[in-house]
Structures are given as C-alpha cells and as structure tokens.
Amino acid sequence: MDAAIKNDFLFSDETRVLIGCAFEVLNNIGHGFIEKTYENVLVVKFGLRSIPYSQQPEFDATYKTIEVGKFIPAFICG
Q1: d(Cα 60, Cα 11) in Å, to the nearest integer?
Q2: Host H or E run for residue 67
Q3: How many domains does the chain fold into?
Q4: Are 48 and 17 in contact (CB under 8 A)?
Q5: Residue 72 — φ and ψ, nearest 5°?
Q6: Distance CA 77, CA 66 (A)
Q7: Would 29 be classed as within a structural domain?
C-alpha cells in the first residue's frame, strides 16, 4: 500500500497519537496486566499529553427504538 494512501482517512494524525500512546504504555509497563490497568495508565498518559478524553461513558444501545442495554467504551478521545 502506498504511504500516501495510508494517511487518507479522517483524524489520521489524532489516530496516530492515540495509537502511539497505547504502544508507549504497553512498552513501559509490559504484558500480563488486566485491561483496567492499561486503561488507568492511559488516563495518566492522556493527562500528560493534554489529550481530552471521557473514561467509560455510558450510551444506550437500542434496536428499533427499544433499549436493549448499555454500550460502555473504555474511552472517547478528542
């Protein structure tokens, strides 16, 4: 794939920064922790990088206007 094509999507710079943060966290604390540990370290990293985020926001999950549960992503960033 051509390098120019790789950058042709929305929020490519922001995506690159967020993925970089995730890899830096993994490289610094290593493997083997539960997911919540990585999430909490990313909170620290986002704060150090002044990246706005919301941790575990809650959204209604609906099917044909009927609420069927909740969707809770780890983060909403940006």
Answers
A1: 25
A2: strand 66-71
A3: 1
A4: no
A5: -130, 90
A6: 28
A7: yes
pLDDT grade, residue 6 (50/70/90)?
A: low
The values of phi and psi at residue 66, to 5°, are: -105, 125
> What's the token pair of residue 73?
């992503």
Q: What is the domain range of residue 70?
A: 11-77
pTM to 2 decimals? 0.77
59, part of any domain: yes
- Using DSSP, state whether 55 is helix, strand or coil: strand
Give me 50's structure tokens: 């002044």
% of the chain exceeding 70 in pLDDT: 91
Helices 35-48 and 12-29: angle between axes, nearest 10 degrees:
120
